[in-house]
Amino acid sequence: MAHLYLLDATAELTQGSEVSLLGDEARHAASVGRIGVGEETLVGNGVGRIARARALKVSPKEVVLEVLDVRNDDPVVPEIWLVQALAKGDRDERAIQACTELGVDRIIPWASARSVSVWRGEKARSGVERWRRIATEASKQSLRSRVPVVQSLATSSEVLNLAKDHHLVVLHPDAPTRLMDLSITDDRPLVMVVGAEGGLSPAEIEELTRAGAGLYRLGKTVLRTSSAGPAALAVLNGALGRW
User: Fold this and answer.
1) What do you get for the CA distance between the two ends of the chain, in Å?
2) Contact at 8 Å (CB) between 91 and 225?
3) Closest by alpha carbon to 67, among 56, 52, 57?
4) Architecture of domain 80-239
5) Per-residue pLDDT of the chain (243 residues; tens, 9 = 90+)
6) For domain 4-72, which CATH number applies: 3.40.430.10, 3.40.718.10, 2.40.240.20, 1.10.10.10?
């Protein structure tokens, strides 16, 4: 299977041009991927442009490649976003990894009322950066041409405001409507809201529904916060014809 390496988002990828992998990408290609001169791989800019390229020079400091052919993937409409509540351990990180592999377009970390994990100050900055690294690595592993955007930590007010011009879908095991029955008739982004280990608080559910969000269930069982988002994304991928 081909590997995908990422260049800067502004990198020029045109047929016949030469591009260079530097830093961690070069070290990974040369030392881990063990790419050799003459071998082909994939390179992309993370924002839709992806190319097949042949290695011309290889070292842990720089890998020079010739671009053989290029494709440009337009954004998928409607986009699917994930508002993921912070969770203890690595459960939220597992959700980010799986949702990226399944095609989520944007990720928003959220400190919900029942989040055990707390991000403040430097921890908030480093937490967002870690989620971005996870999303980037998962995009490369799944050969995605677009790396999902990971926003800064959102407040509850910012999450509620999304209902003004987005479809806000709240996953709740006791919701009266199945996610399978969700009907989307326009191109507004669809935003899934996933609570922490203890779910959403009654106050949060009331505020979200008052703002215009819909409550949907996945099935008869209760999923962990690490699996609810990926399961919902799989359902939506089928319903929206993305799969």
Assistant:
1) 21
2) yes
3) 52
4) 3-Layer(aba) Sandwich (3.40)
5) 579 999 988 887 999 999 999 999 999 999 999 999 999 999 999 999 999 999 999 999 999 999 999 999 999 999 999 999 999 989 999 999 999 999 999 999 999 999 988 899 999 999 999 999 999 999 999 999 999 999 999 999 999 999 999 999 999 999 999 999 999 889 999 999 999 988 999 999 999 999 999 999 998 899 999 999 999 999 999 999 999
6) 2.40.240.20
Angle between helices 225-239 and 91-101 (to 10 degrees): 20
CA dist 236 and 240 (Å) reads: 6
Closest CA to 178 of 169, 187, 186: 169
Task: Give per-residue burial for 222-240: e unless 16+ CB within 10 Å, then b.
Answer: ebebbebbbbbbbbbbebe
pLDDT value for 10: 86
